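Usage

Read records sequentially. Each one opens with the input sequence:
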Amino acid sequence: MQKKYDVIVIGAGLAGSFLAYLLKRKNNNVLLIEKQAIETKSKLCGGLLTKKAVKILHENFKDEKLKEILNENIDSVKVFSKVEIIVEKTELATVKREDLDNYILNEYLKLDGELIDGTVVSSINFDNNCLTVDDDTIEYRYLIGADGIFSYVRMCAEGRFQKMNFALETFVKDKSSFLKIVFEDGFKGYNWIIPSNKHTAIGTGNVEGNKNIKSVYEKHISGIEGIDPMRGAFLPTGGDIKLNHKENVILIGDAAGLISPITGEGIYYALESAIIAEKAINSDQDYKENTKTMLREIKKHMVIKNIIFNDKIRNCVFELAAKNKVILNIVSKLVKKYLLN
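and closes with the structure output:
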């Protein structure tokens, strides 16, 4: 007999696992499909959590395990652009990304959620609401594309991959005593040093088609000892968003292209889009309509990005802030709003 599910979620990363958990919690018949083997799956990510993301996690998960993997003691951030300023009262947290992803996936599995990992979807028939996995045809009422930047669901729907940026990252085992963001002249992107509970992420990300990212990254890590091998990953741009193909084919997180165009922060958008998708499925709410607040924020950030990555303007503002407490207070508020929120 051909299997049927209320919802099939493709991609067991943060967005997909969280949505699967929310759906299973509401007694939906859910199948989660992941192309990688779960025990080897990892995600390149600095692991910075904004206040909004932390709030979502604490609202949905109450056990001590979450508190163990989160580092919620990020009270200040050093931001460097020619000169360094310190932004206080940031209310940020950090996490080793694979710890967070695995934690949420395990919460789904605790609810007896079904998972097929280490396999790929070979075809999707949007007209007949079914897909093929390992020569088996499976029907769905809703299909969710949570399969990241190279989303197979999105490729089948659009016939192309979305536009992309790129990041390079490594880790050191020692935990840094501070979180730092560094802007480089002539580079539309930034460097980061992000401490977690057990390690520090050190990386470089571009926000607009830079070809010199490797040289910026190598300069950033120069002199740092005990680093792991470099890893790279593609990221959405925030300017190529697709929310669904049909009413019952929904894209969330990176697959939808939901990310901050300024920072590349996608954890909040992964979590929030999963929440909105669950409401669309269980409460008959309009997914596109309920994402409008997120989309307005992303579009605003797209405009602000052109100011932040104007070297002359940014350096001038930072130099004034370093000399004047009133200006520093204003700049700190803007940094928290557009870089750290």
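Summary fields computed downstream for this record:
- The longest strand covers residues 83-95.
- The first helix runs from residue 14 to 25.
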